[in-house]
Amino acid sequence: MLLTKIIKVNFYYEASQNLYNVKRLPSYSVSSQVEGPNHITVNDFAWQNLDRWPDKTLTVCAATGHGYTYAQTHRMSVSFAASLRLKLKLRNDDKVAIILPNVPEYPCIALGVLEAGCIASMMNPTYTAYELKRQLELIECKAIVASKLSYPNIVQALQELKSNIPVILIDNDSLPDGTIKFAEFAEDLGVDIDCLKEVKRETNDVAILPFSSGTTGFPKGVVLTHKSVNAMNKMIFDPKILGVEEASATHQSVLPAVLPFFHIFGFNLLMINLMGRGAKMVTLPVFKPDLFLEAIVKYRTNHLYIVPPMGKPIF
To answer: Are 283 and 61 in contact (CB under 8 A)?
Structure first.
């Protein structure tokens, strides 16, 4: 379907060179009363304004309409974190692979992994078994969160590694034998969240292990601490930089989340940064021009973060 009339949208392209001379931005405060990105975790940054818009939508799927509010996502992420520690016995600095497309559960999963004191390693869900095997082995993975889309390749990768890493699937229908249903972890409101008091994370601790795109040889794991992730977010948090206003009683910025969350542009700038501003993210599991344009019109999006080739259906 060709959509010829589209609401006015602000376009922002990936141009990191424009960040070199960013002015010093005003400090923000979190519940810990500690200012600046050097003293808080990525979780603190993402949830810093949760109490201001708990009932606003955080994520909604462009394909299915399924989504979550900020409060729902936060509650689920805490339950998910506690379940990782109690049910899988994960501990600080254990690596958890997130092998998912952009789905509404992504913020819950990523922040739940960090809340558990673990390290999140985001991977491309379209990778082959060989590619996944290499990355899972490289990070010494202790658990995997994925969907049935990637499961056959994950199984093959684990067989070649001779590993029995637990696999959590987000799908709600029947699951393969031996896998764990995501809802059993994230929606377990009876799980003892007091176990999270054992989690002590410093800003110099590793937060995420994303992988490069592999322009020169194999994709390379990039070690990013809580401090480094927050420093980048701090630089661009001001609305004058990104043009995204904070949510209010009468306003909420809406953006199609089409940039992959498993890449740092999508994870950091699109997901974590905009959570601090109370934005709504319309997740697209794949980039399909028709679905992309329909989402822009249906959800009346007022900002886009894209890379230039994605603009072809519009320009």
So the answer is: yes
CA–CA distance, 131 with 129 (Å, rounded to integer): 5
Instruction: Pick the closest to residue 123 from 112, 111, 110, 114 (CA basis).
Output: 110
Q: CA–CA distance from 58 to each of 103, 271, 274, 282 (Å)?
A: 12, 10, 9, 8
For 10-311, give the CATH class.
alpha beta
The whole-angstrom separation of Cα 280 and Cα 276 is 11
Residue ranges of domains in the chain: 10-311
Which residues 6+ apart lie within 8 Å of 25 measured at CB?
Answer: 234, 235, 237, 238, 241
Model confidence pLDDT, tens digit, residues 88-99: 999 999 999 999
Do the Cβ atoms of 269 and 236 come closer than 8 Å?
yes
Cα–Cα distance for residue pair 108/58, rounded to 1 Å: 10
Provide the 8-state DSSP code for 70.
Answer: H
DSSP string, 167-197: EEE--SS---TT-EEHHHHHT-TTS-GGGGG
pLDDT of residue 195: 97
What would the two tokens of residue 300 be?
């009346």
The pLDDT > 70 percentage for the chain reads 87
- State the pLDDT at residue 91: 97
> Which residues, listed in sequence order, are joined to residue 123 by a DSSP beta bridge?
99
> Are 114 and 161 within 8 A, CB to CB?
no
Spatial CA neighbour of 185 closest among 124, 118, 284, 116: 116
Q: Hey, what are 130's tokens? A: 């060989």
H or E stretch at 121: strand 119-123
Task: Please answer whether residues 81 and 43 qualify as being in contact, where contact means their C-beta atoms are separated by less than 8 angstroms.
Answer: no
Model confidence pLDDT, tens digit, residues 251-310: 999 999 999 999 999 999 899 999 999 999 999 999 999 999 999 999 999 998 888 888
